[in-house]
């Protein structure tokens, strides 16, 4: 058991500035999630088609822009890249305030998400550059904690603001959050631009060569590839049923007032689980095994949820709230090791491309899942979707444990460093 606290990296001033910058950036990223939907559905009176378009535009840049743009993340100074992304996002969300219609709003949303898809790989690279190896696990866990907390808290805060004011105030606050992020990131020290060169190959400087280099690195590192695929499949299976939770509540005979309680339980569980898993490093030597075991257990929890939909478990609110909490808490046992694998197995000079590709794979899986989940629900009911998702999670986790090697990845290369 490690004596190093999950908060130990905050003692290092460069990481502390980076973490605060990420925290404000994450808040800004998620704050408008509800506000955009309210603007489209209530203020402008649009329907399901327009809301579906909004959802697509939010996720599409991570798939079609992120992997290619991340080549520039590995070429350019990361501090400047993050500041530029925050500054441009601040201007874009101010554009949300004056957007007259959906045709103006959607390109602005696309641009904001494209900039977020650039910010994230740059942030990952900054962690790899700034953080001492001894606290890399804790730093990666703290970064995941910021993401998990803001995913829960920011939309709730946005909803409260909308209830007392309007979506425009949410967008103004969001712009201020990006400004705070700029303040902290601007206080980072200069970071070296590191160029990764594969062993036995010449320095590849062309765009497409560097793009393919990132793909090759993932393919040659089995631990990294396993972690990315495992998380992508997990996200796919989660999003099979994520949009059907309201129907699940109807199946078990509970009203819509319990829906927020269940979601809050998942969010709280995820936050607590992230802190607990990040606090101890007993799993650091075998992160894939940790991901697999915790995913399997959470998969069993999803199977139990399907039993409720089938009417095999009584509609007890304490039982289901506890189960949702445990699914969230145990599920953090996958996300925290995944972030650590991404950092540990990837050299700084190529981490932007690896992160961009991993984000694209995961977002593509989340794109496809809701429609497939809806079709399965039409055939076998909501319980069938939960049963398939839970069983699939257990199965893919067991497969991952069998294919991952006992040692590190096979990809080899070296890094050259230049002044930023």
From TrEMBL:
Q: Which InterPro entries match?
A: Bacilysin_exporter_BacE_put, MFS, MFS_dom, MFS_trans_sf
> Mainly localized where?
membrane
Bilayer-spanning residue ranges: 20-45, 51-75, 87-110, 152-185, 223-241, 261-283, 290-312, 318-340, 361-380, 386-404
Q: How does it sit in the membrane?
A: Multi-pass membrane protein
User: Taking every annotated instance into account, which residue ranges of this chain make up the domain Major facilitator superfamily (MFS) profile?
Assistant: 14-408
Location of the protein in the cell = Cell membrane
> Per UniProt, which keywords does this protein have?
Cell membrane, Membrane, Transmembrane, Transmembrane helix, Transport
Q: Which PROSITE patterns match?
A: MFS (PS50850)
Gene3D superfamilies listed in its UniProt record: MFS general substrate transporter like domains (1.20.1250.20)
Q: Name one Pfam family in it.
A: MFS_1
The protein here is known as MFS transporter
Organism expressing this protein natively: Tumebacillus lipolyticus
């Amino acid at each position: 058991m490690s004596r190093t606290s999950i908060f130990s990296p905050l003692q290092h001033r460069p990481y502390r500035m980076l973490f605060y910058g990420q925290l404000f950036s994450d808040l800004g990223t998620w704050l408008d999630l509800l506000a955009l939907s309210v603007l489209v559905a209530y203020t402008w009176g649009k329907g399901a088609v327009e809301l579906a378009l909004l959802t697509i535009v939010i996720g599409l840049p991570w798939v079609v822009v992120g992997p290619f743009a991340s080549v520039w993340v590995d070429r350019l100074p990361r501090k400047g890249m993050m500041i530029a992304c925050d500054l441009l996002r601040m201007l874009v969300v101010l554009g949300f305030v004056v957007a007259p219609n959906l045709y103006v709003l959607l390109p602005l949303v696309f641009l904001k998400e494209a900039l977020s898809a650039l910010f994230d790989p740059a942030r990952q690279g900054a962690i790899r550059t700034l953080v001492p190896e001894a606290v890399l696990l804790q730093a990666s866990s703290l970064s995941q904690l910021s993401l998990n907390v803001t995913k829960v808290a920011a939309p709730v805060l946005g909803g409260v603001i909308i209830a007392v004011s309007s979506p425009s105030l949410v967008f103004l606050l969001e712009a201020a959050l990006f400004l705070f992020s700029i303040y902290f990131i601007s206080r980072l020290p200069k970071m070296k631009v590191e160029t990764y060169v594969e062993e036995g190959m010449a320095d590849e400087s062309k765009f497409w060569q560097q793009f393919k280099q990132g793909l090759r690195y993932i393919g040659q590192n089995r631990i990294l590839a396993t972690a990315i695929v495992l998380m992508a499949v997990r996200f796919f299976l989660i999003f099979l049923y994520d949009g059907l939770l309201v129907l699940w509540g109807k199946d078990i005979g509970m009203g819509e007032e319990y829906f927020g309680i269940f979601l809050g339980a998942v969010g709280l569980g995820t936050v607590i689980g992230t802190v607990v898993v990040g606090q101890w490093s007993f799993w650091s030597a075998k992160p894939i095994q940790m991901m697999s075991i915790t995913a399997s257990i959470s998969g069993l929890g999803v199977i139990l949820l399907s039993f409720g939909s089938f009417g095999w478990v009584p509609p007890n609110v304490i039982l289901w709230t506890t189960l949702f909490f445990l699914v969230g808490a145990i599920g953090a046992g996958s996300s925290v090791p995944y972030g650590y694998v991404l950092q540990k197995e990837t050299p700084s000079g190529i981490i932007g491309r690896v992160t961009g590709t991993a984000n694209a794979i995961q977002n593509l899986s989340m794109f496809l899942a809701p429609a497939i989940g809806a079709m399965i629900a039409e055939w076998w009911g909501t319980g069938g979707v939960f049963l398939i998702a839970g069983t699939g999670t257990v199965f893919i986790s067991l497969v991952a444990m069998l294919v991952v090697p006992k040692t590190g990845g096979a990809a080899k290369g070296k890094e050259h460093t230049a002044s930023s």
